[in-house]
Structures are given as structure tokens and as C-alpha cells.
């Protein structure tokens, strides 16, 4: 068995080849010892590891493993998953919305990290918990999908009352910027969660669109587990990215980019 493992701040993503087919699985970071035992149990196996927790995982393995820098692994994995989807792209931006968000410019087969933001999937979990007490990712995503941001976010058109705004009135002027004092006690958990998702999605896409301009590309590939079964976040990111003139692309199994890239380097 051969393993490519991306041990990130929140989740461990594993890509492995079994009987010649590519398989994917993931574990919470708290189960790092379980992942190590699984790999250790395989008598014939080769492993390549990446991600911020690669060192911790390596120290738990009883066999030699290769380690690769996470930005390089992600770059290789994105290339592989793009080809698998039948897409040909030469120059593009990769925005990895993991625990935090990291942004990379890919040109002529080289990647350069050009920035990031601390607003990411960790913010989604953390703020959601603080505001509503909900801790489970699937539950946060499901509840946010039925909530409205109208009473929480302030749109440009709300400021430009009775007047044509100089930019689209539908843009958010201020996330959580509405007059909340009068309604705070009435807000439902669904409304609050929808607003958290909006904040994360709009921040990530706004930063990405500026980065794409700086890099001179128009396609933005969004990856990271924050998009996993999260149609609302994808919708927010898509509409903001398109509104600002760039094209979003969500890779199938994109959250496994780092793991797939690591797998491709197993010798
Ligand atoms: P980083 O790359 O920043 O070190 P990471 O690689 O662990 O972190 P990802 O796995 O890409 O990050 O994304 C983690 C985010 O995905 C979480 O913060 C959360 O918003 C979301 N997520 C998706 N599925 C789950 C899950 N089952 N449990 C917890 N978070 C999840
Ligand atoms: Mg990661």
C-alpha cells in the first residue's frame, strides 16, 4: 500500500492506492495516533507526508517516510486533480481554505505563495461556536443554509438610501454591520451561522480576487476542507468572485490536494 498524508491543523487527509485505485479518507487531528497505527500495521507500505503536523506524525511512525513541503505538495495535487477533471489550465490562483487561508500563484508550472488571511475554516468553526454554541461542522453548515443574513449584514444599498450607489448595492458594506442592538436578542442561530459563513466566504474571495489581479490570472481554484459538502460557502465565494470579474473553480476532492501531491512523490 502507498500513502500520501496531509496532516493539517484540523484534519488529516489520506490519499492511498489500493489494488491500483486511488482512495481518500480523512480523520480529525485528535486521531493522529490512530492514523499512525494504521500506517504502521501495513507490512509493505511506502509513505510521503506533508502539512504542519507532518513532524508529529513522522515521530509516531515505525518506518521511514518521505516528507514534502506542503505548498509543493498542494501544487502537485492540484495539477493532478485538474487533469483528472479534464481541465487544462496554465496560470491560475490557488486559494486553500483550511484552518487558515493560504493563497498561491501558479505560473509556468511554478508556485509562489503570495499571501493569505487568518480568516478560514477555523474562523468558521470558532465564531460559530462562540455565537451559537454549535460545534459540529455538518450541523453548522446545515443550519447556516436555512438562515438569512438580512438582519445582520449591512449592504451598500442600505447606506445609499434613496440614492444610486457608486458600486453594486448588493455588495456587503459591513459584515455584522447592521444595527444589531435592537435585534440581537431575537437573532436565531441559523441567522448567526449564515452571517458567519458570509463573513468567511466574502473575506476569502475578496482577498483572492485582489491576489489574482496581482498575479495576472483570472481563474481562482478554491480548495480546502472548508468547502466540503458546504454549498452555501461555495455559493457565497462563487458570487463574490464572479462579481469581481474572476472565474472560480472548485476541484473535485480538492481538500485532498496536499495528500495527492504527497502520494505522487512516493517512490
Ligand atoms: P491547515 O491547512 O490550515 O493546516 P487543515 O489542512 O487541517 O488546516 P482543511 O482540512 O483543509 O485544513 O480544512 C479544515 C476546515 O474544514 C475546518 O476548519 C472546518 O471549517 C472544515 N471541516 C470540514 N469537515 C470537517 C470536519 N469533519 N471536522 C471539522 N472541520 C471540518
Ligand atoms: Mg491544509
Automatic annotation (TrEMBL):
Molecular function in Gene Ontology: ATP binding; pantothenate kinase activity
GO biological process terms, semicolon-separated: coenzyme A biosynthetic process
InterPro entries on file: ATPase_NBD (IPR043129), Type_II_PanK (IPR004567), Type_II_PanK_bac (IPR011602)
Assigned keywords, A-Z: ATP-binding, Coenzyme A biosynthesis, Cytoplasm, Kinase, Nucleotide-binding, Transferase
Keyword Membrane: no
GO CC annotation, single: cytosol
Pfam families: Fumble
Matches recorded under CDD domains: ASKHA_NBD_PanK-II_bac (cd24085)
Designated name of the protein: Pantothenate kinase
Organismal lineage: Bacteria, Bacillati, Bacillota, Bacilli, Bacillales
Amino acid at each position: 500500500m502507498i500513502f500520501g498524508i496531509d496532516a493539517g491543523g484540523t484534519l488529516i487527509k489520506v490519499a492511498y492506492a489500493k489494488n491500483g485505485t486511488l482512495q481518500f479518507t480523512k480523520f480529525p487531528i485528535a486521531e493522529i495516533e490512530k492514523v499512525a497505527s494504521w500506517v504502521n500495521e501495513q507490512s509493505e507500505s511506502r509513505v510521503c507526508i506533508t502539512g504542519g503536523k507532518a513532524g508529529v506524525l513522522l515521530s509516531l511512525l515505525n518506518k521511514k517516510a518521505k516528507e514534502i513541503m506542503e505548498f509543493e505538495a498542494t501544487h502537485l495535487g492540484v495539477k493532478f486533480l485538474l487533469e483528472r477533471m479534464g481541465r487544462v489550465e496554465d496560470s491560475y490562483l490557488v486559494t486553500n481554505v483550511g484552518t487558515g487561508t493560504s493563497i498561491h500563484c501558479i505560473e509556468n508550472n511554478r508556485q509562489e505563495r503570495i499571501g493569505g488571511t487568518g480568516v478560514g475554516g477555523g474562523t468558521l468553526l470558532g465564531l460559530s461556536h462562540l455565537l451559537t454554541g454549535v460545534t459540529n461542522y455538518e450541523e453548522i453548515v446545515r443550519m447556516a443554509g436555512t438562515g438569512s443574513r438580512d438582519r445582520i449584514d449591512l449592504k451598500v444599498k442600505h447606506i445609499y438610501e434613496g440614492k444610486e450607489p457608486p458600486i453594486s448595492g448588493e455588495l456587503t458594506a459591513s459584515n455584522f454591520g447592521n444595527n444589531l442592538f435592537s435585534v440581537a436578542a431575537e437573532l436565531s442561530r441559523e441567522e448567526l451561522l449564515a452571517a458567519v459563513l458570509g463573513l468567511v466566504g466574502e473575506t476569502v474571495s475578496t482577498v483572492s480576487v485582489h491576489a489574482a489581479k496581482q498575479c495576472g490570472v483570472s481563474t481562482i481554484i478554491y480548495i480546502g476542507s472548508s468547502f466540503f459538502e458546504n454549498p452555501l460557502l461555495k455559493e457565497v465565494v462563487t458570487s463574490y468572485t464572479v462579481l469581481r470579474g474572476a472565474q472560480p473553480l472548485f476541484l473535485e476532492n480538492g481538500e485532498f490536494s496536499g495528500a495527492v501531491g504527497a502520494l505522487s512523490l512516493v517512490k
